[in-house]
Amino acid sequence: MAKASHAAAPAKGLFYDPARRGYATVYRENEPNHCPGCGRTHWLVGRVTAECGFCETALPLASATSQGMRGLFRGHRPIAA
Ligand SMILES: [Zn+2]
């Protein structure tokens, strides 16, 4: 007898498994952030990313990723006639 598949699993290729995404490092504001490249803590912080001042490793800001890409793009506005 065949083993029953998981009832909640969607069609093959559309399943999202966070465990397969891997390890994601982010820069957290107001916390000590050690660079994954060199271990130092001097950062140049932008609107979306922070860059290590020594080895130029760039990390996404945790606050920017929690908001998604909402702040980067504007919607389409019709041209006034
Ligand atoms: Zn570094």
Describe the structure.
The protein is an alpha+beta fold and 81 residues long. The chain has a domain of 45 residues. The protein has two helices and three strands. The chain has a three-stranded antiparallel beta sheet with strand order 1-2-3. The chain binds zinc ion. Zinc ion binds next to loops. The site of zinc ion (ZN) has 8 residues, from loops.
Q: Key terms for this structure?
A:
single chain; 81 residues; alpha+beta; three-stranded antiparallel β-sheet; 11% helix; 12% strand; flat; binds zinc ion
How is the main sheet built?
3 strands, antiparallel
Summing up helix and strand content along with how strands pair, one would put the structural category as: alpha+beta
Globally, the shape reads flat
Uncertain segments of ≥5 residues (pLDDT<50)? none
Order of helix and strand elements from N to C terminus: HEEEH
Fraction of residues in β-strands: 5-15%
> Span from first to last CA?
68 Å
Q: Mean of residue pLDDT? A: 78
What order do the strands of the largest sheet run in, or round the barrel if closed?
1-2-3
Oligomeric organization of the protein chains: single chain
The helix content, as a percent range, equals 10-25%
Q: What is the CA-atom radius of gyration, in angstroms? A: 20 Å
Describe, in short, the structure shown.
Helix content is 11%, strand content 12%. With 81 residues, it is an alpha+beta fold.
Write the layout of secondary structure elements.
Layout: H1 18-21, E1 43-45, E2 49-52, E3 58-60, H2 62-66
Antiparallel strand pairs: 1-2, 2-3
The structure holds zinc ion (ZN).
